[in-house]
Design a protein that fits this description.
Blueprint lengths: L2 H4 L5 H11 L8 E4 L9 H16 L3 E6 L9 H14 L7 E3 L4 H13 L3 E4 L3 H8 L16 H12 L9 E4 L14 E5 L13 E3 L1 H12 L3 E5 L6 H10 L7 E5 L2 E3 L6 H9 L14 H7 L3 H11 L6 E3 L1 H12 L4 E3 L1 E2 L2 E6 L8 E6 L9 E6 L2 E5 L3 E2 L9 E2 L3 E4 L4 E9 L6 E9 L16 E2 L2 E2 L4 E8 L16 H4 L5 E9 L2 H5 L3 H6 L3 E4 L3 E5 L9 E7 L9
Parallel strand pairs: 1-2, 2-3, 8-9, 10-11, 12-27, 14-22, 18-19, 20-23, 25-29
Antiparallel strand pairs: 4-5, 5-6, 6-7, 13-26, 14-17, 15-16, 17-24, 20-21, 21-22, 25-26, 27-28, 28-29
């Protein structure tokens, strides 16, 4: 089946590429690239862009390149390079040996600028940055020619060579493409293609003191690598004419083609790299891996799986414009991935002590409880039961309201996997009136798994044996921001914008002892994001940053159902 027939009902990018390949747009194989700048960490929007490039390449049996846009030594760091490579591989989009660096093409890009100067298509300009902006004009007014626009080829070549050799101060001169100062597209009004930066580069050291702008370097790098499609987010659409101009003026045969797709945003989170940096550097979050952030590092620490993120990007498909997707779709993908994989444990987040008065003082029973009610293959585990247990504080109401089917005074409830208990007495703090302890009785004949078919109760609650409980800290999350729709250009007072309840830490949570066994190899649990379902509370994982052998710390990944009302 040919490409056109096979993909005629597919998303718009696949349809567009399929049509172009059908008429023989390229003699070489399909190739795309993801070009991150190593000045920060990847986020969920990055994952969508990576997915788009990678999956389309796979669809047409092509090659996916990871190429670092590392032509600004003032912002970039090897730390980010390593993190980006690790995160991309973790996501499942491994580029294999196809990892490249824009800085490795420095000589080629420099020679391309020399070629344009020789053709009279580029010149050295002495205007200051603010003057260049002033001369550029506006959306309604054309720009003005630089007074240095008509320098001779020989003078431009000499000046550019002196720039390269470190003869001028930083940012004192630039090289500009000579296109059209009257163009309705501001990107074509003699854009800057080279600037002077005296700073050590993490890869090339001090070999260079001039660096190309992205819009100039990008098409040249694509051409060098044999990329066929430069798939960019929608904000680069107005830059496409410049991309094409560079390739045309350099005489590149079968030039790569830039095509755009929509930019992804999520409700309740911020994906602007500038805003993320402000949140991190301002101390509003616990680093780039804070579980409230949409960075891949944050999602990993929170407990999201690669499969859940891939499912999320697949369900979105290709979007044409700037789109905001409800975060519940990402959470849904996580629940679908974990539903049949995780062991369901009992964890009491707000403990209330119960003494079962008619249970033998020193007796301990090992009850068999299923690990996952949706997947019998995960088997069962032993859970200790004893005279004193803990239940959730909100699973008891002394005077039950209508529809309350858990434990109350003089009423019965089933303990999950164990017995019926009946509350006989409520003990309170005489000073505050707070309930401190319940005295209950149990019915030995109602043990789960014995075939008991007598009276019924409407409610089942979870519990943990007091003498066997493992204490831990638990982090609960809500959305990070109090409001949506931050403009990239507006000032940000994060103290007023960050939700004060976005992180709630619960101390001395009680968990059944199996969790200690499951997390005995803490380093492994951290590296593999050990996930559990806490019965009735949601999905949780070991906090890879804060958990220790002496104190387990868990992050709630998502509740069992979506509770973030972002409308």
């Amino acid at each position: 089946m040919d490409h056109k027939t096979e993909h005629q009902n597919e998303n718009f990018l696949i349809k567009l590429i399929s049509d172009e390949l059908e008429i023989g747009a390229f003699a070489r194989d399909m190739c795309t690239r993801f070009p991150p700048e190593p000045n920060g960490y990847l986020h969920i929007g990055s994952a969508y862009a990576i997915h788009t490039n990678y999956e389309i390449t796979q669809r047409f049996n092509g090659t996916f390149h990871l190429r670092f846009d590392d032509t600004n030594p003032l912002k970039e760091d090897i730390e980010y390079v390593h993190a980006i490579i690790e995160d991309i591989k973790w996501l499942g989009y491994d580029p294999g040996n196809h990892i490249y660096y824009g800085s490795d093409y420095s000589a080629d890009i420099y020679n391309a600028a020399v070629t344009l100067i020789k053709q009279g298509k580029a010149y050295v300009c002495d205007l200051a940055p603010e003057q260049i902006t002033e001369y550029r004009g506006t959306l309604t007014e054309p720009g003005r020619n630089s007074p240095f626009r008509n320098r001779s080829v020989e003078e431009n070549l000499e000046l550019f060579a002196t720039m390269k050799n470190g003869g001028f101060p930083a940012f004192s001169k630039v090289v500009r493409a000579k296109i059209d100062m009257g163009s309705p597209n501001i990107n074509l009004r003699d854009p800057v293609i080279y600037r002077i930066i005296h700073a050590e580069h993490y890869r090339t050291g001090t070999d260079w003191c001039i660096y190309p702008l992205y819009d100039f370097a990008h098409p040249i790098q694509d051409a060098i690598e044999g990329v066929t499609y430069s798939l960019c987010s929608i904000e680069f659409k107005d830059h496409r004419p410049l991309y094409d101009w560079v390739l045309k003026e350099l005489g590149i045969p079968e030039p790569p083609r830039q095509r755009e797709f929509g930019r992804l945003s999520l409700t309740g989170v911020v994906t602007s790299k500038r805003f993320l940096r402000q949140l991190v550097e301002g101390g509003y979050v616990d680093g780039w891996d804070d579980p409230r952030l949409p960075t891949i590092r944050g999602l990993r620490r929170r407990g999201f799986t690669p499969a859940s993120i891939r499912r999320f990007t697949q369900e979105i498909g290709s979007i044409r414009t700037q789109s905001t997707v409800d975060i519940s779709l990402l959470e849904h993908g996580l629940r679908q991935d974990l539903k049949e994989k995780t062991i369901s444990l009992m964890a009491v987040l707000q403990p209330l002590k119960i003494v079962i008065t008619n249970y033998p003082e020193d007796e301990v029973e090992l009850l068999m409880i299923e690990n996952n009610s949706d997947n019998e293959a995960l088997g069962k585990r032993e859970v200790p039961f004893s005279k004193t247990i803990y239940i959730e504080r909100d699973d008891f109401l002394e005077l039950p309201t209508k529809g309350f089917h858990r434990l109350s005074l003089n009423a019965e409830v089933r303990l999950k996997g164990a017995y019926f208990i009946k509350c006989e007495q409520v003990l309170k703090d005489p000073a505050t009136g707070e309930i401190t302890e319940l005295h209950c009785t149990y019915d030995k004949l109602t043990k789960s798994g014995t075939g008991f078919t007598g009276r019924k109760v409407k409610g089942t609650i979870h519990w943990v044996s007091a003498k066997h409980a493992v204490t831990a800290d638990v982090h609960l999350y809500e959305k990070l921001l109090l409001e949506e729709g931050l403009s990239k250009d507006e000032s940000t007072n994060w103290a007023d914008r960050v939700n004060p309840h976005s992180l709630v830490t619960l101390k001395d949570v009680m968990l059944e002892p199996f969790v200690e066994q499951a997390c005995s190899d803490l380093d492994k649990a951290k590296n593999e994001a050990k996930q559990f379902q806490f019965f009735r509370h949601g999905y949780f994982c070991v906090d890879s940053k804060l958990a220790t052998v002496d104190r387990l710390v868990f992050n709630r990944i998502v509740p069992l159902k979506d509770t973030w009302n972002t409308k």
